[in-house]
Amino acid sequence: MPIPDPAPHEIVIKVMSVGLNPLDLYAIAGRDFIRDRIKLPAILGNDVSGIVEKIGSDVVGLQIGDKVCGIINFPGSDGSITGHGYGEYASAPANQVIKMPAGLSFDMAAGLPVVGLAAKQALEDVGDIKEGQRVLIHGVAGGVGHMAVQIAKQHHTYVFATASSKDVAFVKSLGADEVINYQTQQFEDTAHDMDLVLDTVGGEVMRRSLDVVAPGGLMVTTRVPELVTIEDAIKAKGVQVKIVAVQPNAKQLAELAQQVVDGKIRVNIDNAYPFEQLPQALAHLETGGAVQGKLVVKVHV
Ligand SMILES: NC(=O)c1ccc[n+]([C@@H]2O[C@H](COP(=O)([O-])OP(=O)(O)OC[C@H]3O[C@@H](n4cnc5c(N)ncnc54)[C@H](OP(=O)(O)O)[C@@H]3O)[C@@H](O)[C@H]2O)c1
Fold first, then answer.
1. Mutation pick for ligand 1 pocket among 28, 120, 151, 164 (CB with most ligand atoms within 8 Å)
2. What is the β-pairing status of strands 97-99 and 89-93?
């Protein structure tokens, strides 16, 4: 395909790495809640790091050759969330990227934006997390969860984290105070009276979590389309539940990226696939449990 030209407020990025997300799988599967937001024929991929190749006439603060990362085309200029990051060159609104701090690798910069911002916005903006709280985070071996446990610990909270047997050591290494192996334990037996619950798993985990929220506590879920399935239970139990819908945020992303460089937070790149193996990388993501942290694909090397 030809290298795109930027609109006045856009840049064109030579994509170096792209992070894979469950959202990509939902788009490929044509799930209802995303179908109308993707323009066909679609090049997916919103989590991107790369080098500025071209600059639109209205863009300030960026130069050709700058290393950038962000959640791009979320939404794009056409209103869709077709990311274009699986392509070698992607045009995107310039205000959705930040300059990468020195010392951040392209792979980490592509793995960080969606999960780092989702975790931060869920806990801080939506969850209003506070020192001393009891916090339960589900799915901590995954992308959002592994960032969330580290951010929750930065707030000096006591963190319970759910994961499967093979991930217990990994989750412990992220700083969780108590790791609950959901394959052998019911989380309700250990984690009760929670001030804040972050659900990234959905289904029965989301429903059962309503029972462990303390009076006046809050559950935040990333599993937005599933919330309607527990509306009755939420009403019956009188629990406060909110959703997080991740947004590009330059200030927050810059803060997270600097923390990665400073070693204060870790984005765990489970595997960085070569571009030719994008299908295998997506198949790996689809197995879900086989990933600790993030999968990325190196589009250019
Ligand atoms: N609303 C938003 O803004 C937003 C933003 C980002 C992501 N999301 C959504 O949030 C969800 C999680 O995203 P992600 O990137 O973190 O996905 P992910 O990397 O696939 O992580 C999900 C994790 O949950 C674990 N898991 C599965 N069943 C579990 C259970 N019963 N208890 C505890 N853990 C369990 C999985 O590992 P095992 O199967 O090995 O246990 C996996 O590590 C996805 O649905 C994604 O689309 C929403």
1. 164
2. unpaired
Q: How far apart are CA 100 and CA 106, in angstroms?
A: 9
Dihedral sign (CA 34, 198, 227, 186):
positive
Q: How far apart are CA 214 and CA 201, in angstroms?
A: 20
Contact 75, 92 (CB under 8 A): no
Measured in angstroms, how far is the CA atom of residue 281 from the centroid of ligand 1?
17
* b/e 81-102 (16+ beta carbons within 10 angstroms → b): bbbbbbbbbbbbbbebbbbbbe
pTM: predicted TM-score of the whole model, two decimal places = 0.98
Q: Closest residue (by CA) to atom 45 of ligand 1?
A: 223
167-226 tens-digit pLDDT: 999 999 999 999 999 999 999 999 999 999 999 999 999 999 999 999 999 999 999 999
